[in-house]
Write a structure and sequence with these properties.
Structural class: alpha/beta
Mean pLDDT: 90
CATH architecture of the largest domain: 3-Layer(aba) Sandwich
CATH class of the largest domain: Alpha Beta
Strand content: 15-25%
Number of helices: 8
Distance between the termini: 38 Å
CATH topology of the largest domain: YojJ-like (1
Strand order of the largest sheet: 7-9-8-6-10-11-12
Shape: elongated
Radius of gyration: 21 Å
Order of helices and strands: HEHEEHEEHHEHEHEEHEEE
Largest sheet: 7 strands, mixed
CATH superfamily of the largest domain: DNA integrity scanning protein, DisA, N-terminal domain
Low-confidence stretches: none
Bound molecules: adenosine-5'-triphosphate, manganese (II) ion
Length: 270
């Protein structure tokens, strides 16, 4: 078996740090006992009480997204450096860690996935709630039928100035926030209807049924996406909002920031 160690050993040979994704307590302990090893824990919560921790806004099903997000967060927090070689250990098939990827941290190829949550105007919890809502809506649809939806999150005053009402705003005099279970039911009901939801930095639902009128100049979104995605992308270039779009036609949830597509997730994978 020495032969196998030689070959697979290359994966973790002379890495600058080990990045553990949602390890169990005992798994983490085994690493923290290794001398001179930097260990970074990444997860939705710091269940093992790790000294060095990067929080994930959701447990990305897609492994590439999960690792990218973790590394962008780790770079951003300064717990790893650009160019570091990392052994990223995560679970792919089972509950426990079963897979190790050797990845080089590259500040150049940042996708902005970490910034989307942590460096947006809106509260990270609000962004997370809206993303979860869009994923849930995408999974279930509305009474079994696929639905589309567009959520614009943050910088609501400016977004309101660059949009107009399509209909009476059911949230006009209310003080409801995303994340509240009642609101999720309401939003799902209203998502059958046209236009965008406008949500404030703190998560207050400012309006439904808004027709966005941003300038689409300089917006570069993938060809084949229609008006909802174009408007959703463009408003994030014109304002400091981010947008989360559920496509009625392909069922994917996409997030835009600064006029760019940052994240694409398939609700069925959650
Ligand atoms: N500027 C806009 N502001 C708000 N909502 C819009 C805007 N443009 C389109 N929409 C909404 O998006 C819906 C779908 O439009 P369209 O099919 O062109 O978009 P799309 O990007 O292809 O989205 P989908 O993938 O869901 O079909 C429209 O019925 C409307 O409710
Ligand atoms: Mn369409």
């Amino acid at each position: 078996m020495a032969g196998l160690d030689d070959v697979f050993g290359d994966i973790f040979a002379s890495v600058d740090a080990v990045v553990l994704f949602s390890p169990s307590g005992s798994y983490y302990e085994r690493f923290s006992a290794v001398d001179d090893l930097d260990v970074v824990v990444v997860g939705t919560e710091n269940a093992v009480g790790a000294e060095t921790f990067v929080e994930l806004p959701l447990e990305f099903e897609n492994i590439t997204d999960r690792i990218r997000f973790g590394l962008e967060g780790a770079l951003e927090q300064g717990v790893i450096d650009d160019g570091d070689d990392l052994a990223c250990a995560t679970s792919v098939f089972g509950d426990g860690i079963d897979t190790v990827s050797r990845v080089r941290a590259d500040a150049e190829t940042q996708t902005g996935i970490y910034d989307l949550f942590v460096k947006s105007r809106a509260d990270p919890e609000v962004v997370k709630s809206v993303l979860e809502l869009a994923i849930e809506l995408g999974k279930k649809g509305q009474k079994g039928k696929p639905v589309g939806a567009l959520f614009v999150v943050g910088d609501a005053g400016k977004v309101m100035n660059k949009s107009r009402p399509l209909s009476y705003n059911p949230f006009e005099k209310s003080h409801v926030h995303v994340g509240d279970p009642i609101v999720n039911v309401m939003l799902k009901e209203f998502s059958r209807l046209d236009g965008a939801f406008i949500i404030s930095d703190a998560g207050k639902i400012v309006s439904a049924y808004r027709y966005l009128e941003p300038s689409a100049e300089g917006v570069d979104i993938p060809k084949g996406l229609g008006a909802r995605h174009m408007a959703g992308g463009a408003i994030t270039r014109d304002t400091n909002a981010i947008s989360i779009v559920l496509s009625e036609s392909d069922g994917l949830v996409r997030a835009f920031k600064a006029g760019e597509l940052i994240l694409e997730v398939d609700p069925e994978a959650y």
